[in-house]
Amino acid sequence: MENQFSLAHLTVIDSPPPEMTYLAARAGYDFVSFRPIYMGLPGESNYNLAQNKQMFKDTKSAMKETGMKLLDIELAKIYDGVDPKSYEPAFEVAAELGARHVLSSIWTDDRNYGIERFAEICELAKPFGLTVDLEFVPIASVVDLAGAMDVLRTAKQENSGLMIDVHHFHRSGDKAEDLLNVPRDWFNYLHLCDAPVEIPSSKEEMTRILREERSYLGEGGIDVAGVVDRIPNVPYSIELPNIKKTQELGYEEFARRCLQTAKDYLNRQVKT
């Protein structure tokens, strides 16, 4: 099966969804991955399509004009005090735009609370035909493959899935062969990037690299091929934020190079 690629929000973080759609189409992507759930992070732009009706209309027009498809939306974040129902407007917008998946991650240390809220989010997303795909993040509370599998097995939601980000997978110290123990139907898509093989000793440096300085595939030391070889063929969402390269190249050329280097790497490294 021919590989398909999505342009992830963090890769072109300051591009609003309509602009991002046109950009992704010109750069040769098959999908886009939006963040219509506003996180309220410092300096973050608000792309809440449920509230911004004009931006939603422009996004819908851009997708129709380009034929671009929406792979997933983010981020249904689970934290102490979260109200899962607050994500419903984003689910509705995502469904109207044809999305398939919702990305989620857990940032509470209360295991039972995190699992209960994850299950609730899955139930809320189900009527919209969306899966909820759990991503483990080494700076969050669910930090590795074992923790994510624990959540999924305990929540027992038919529309839940596991989303592996190869950066986080490497930083968590997981082994590619462990992916063979994951149910095949849990995999819906994958985040691709590269990074230095050395794992930062501080949370601050790990955070800086994952948000600002990831590498093109093949330019770091992560065993991306080892991960890809052990999961089914799914769409690859390129999440590769790099402030220096985007300032140098501009978003469109950077996105194009992200895609080309990913294709070159996969054609060169991954078994067929």
Summarize the structure.
The protein is of the alpha/beta class and 272 residues long. The chain has one domain: Alpha-Beta Barrel (TIM Barrel).
Q: Could you walk me through the main structural features you see in this protein, from its secondary elements to its overall organization?
A:
This protein is an alpha/beta fold and 272 residues long. The protein has one domain (5-269): Divalent-metal-dependent TIM barrel enzymes (TIM Barrel), CATH 3.20.20.150. 39% of the residues lie in helices and 16% in strands. It has helices spanning 17-27, 53-66, 88-96, 111-125, 145-155, 166-171, 203-212, 224-228, 243-249, 251-269, and strands at residues 5-8, 31-34, 69-78, 101-106, 131-134, 160-165, 187-192, 236-238. It has an eight-stranded parallel β-barrel, surrounded by five helices. Helix 2 (53-66) links the parallel strand 2 and strand 3. Helix 1 runs parallel beside helix 2. The radius of gyration is 17 Å and the shape is globular. The mean pLDDT is 96.
